[in-house]
Amino acid sequence: MTLLDELKAFEGQQAGPPLVGPDPVNQPMIRHWCEAMGDELPVYTDEAVATASVHHGIIAPPTMLQAWTMVGMRRPSGAGNKYTEVLALLERHGFTSVVATNCEQEYHRELRPGDHISVTTVIEHVSEEKRTALGAGHFVTSLMHYHDQHGELVGTQRWRILKFKPPER
């Protein structure tokens, strides 16, 4: 079996169990995000303006979608995680460096304070070996589905990285 065959065997597999965000969508985190990003849209932070808007209340910036499920410094164990396994397989074959190449998000509805978000990740695609300016590598694309506490799909994210062999110095 070739490396590419082994890599392709991961396609379509769920990376691991759903990851439930540690905190519900909340106003303090929305405020911190807006301050950090310089986003002054009042429907994110001003209750009176948000209530009078078409949203009828505070909403979170859509680009925060991924933030609600980020685990911070306490990373879950990689044991049994197919995404961790595919990256480890690439590492064993010398593809030791990584760079994120692109991210595409699609929003199905606004997130509001109190929503509790979870994410399920599927390994969507692993490319054949490509030659890039960074070095030879494989693009690994994952597709994340974000759901609220009721199981409603609230957004998706396609995340692509390049695991590559850095050039020898």
3D structure, described in words:
The protein has 169 residues and is of the alpha+beta class. The chain has two domains: 3-24 and 72-164, Thiol Ester Dehydrase, Chain A (Roll), CATH 3.10.129.10; 26-59, no CATH class. The protein is 20% helix and 28% strand. Strands 1, 2, 3, 4, 5 and 6 form a six-stranded antiparallel β-sheet that branches. A hairpin with a 5-residue loop joins strand 5 (136-147) and strand 6. It is elongated, with a radius of gyration of 19 Å. The two termini are 31 Å apart. 20% of the residues are buried. The mean pLDDT is 95.
Short synopsis of the structure:
The chain has 169 residues and is α+β, with helices and mostly antiparallel strands. The chain is built from 4 helices and 6 strands, in the order αβαααβββββ. Strands 1, 2, 3, 4, 5 and 6 form a 6-stranded antiparallel β-sheet that branches.
Biggest sheet: strands, sense, closure? 6 strands, antiparallel
The rough form would be described as: elongated
Query: Strand share of the residues?
Result: 25-35%
Q: Could you tell me the number of beta strands?
A: 6
The stretches of 5 or more residues where confidence is low (pLDDT under 50) are none
CATH H-level superfamily of the largest domain: Hotdog Thioesterase
Overall helicity: 10-25%
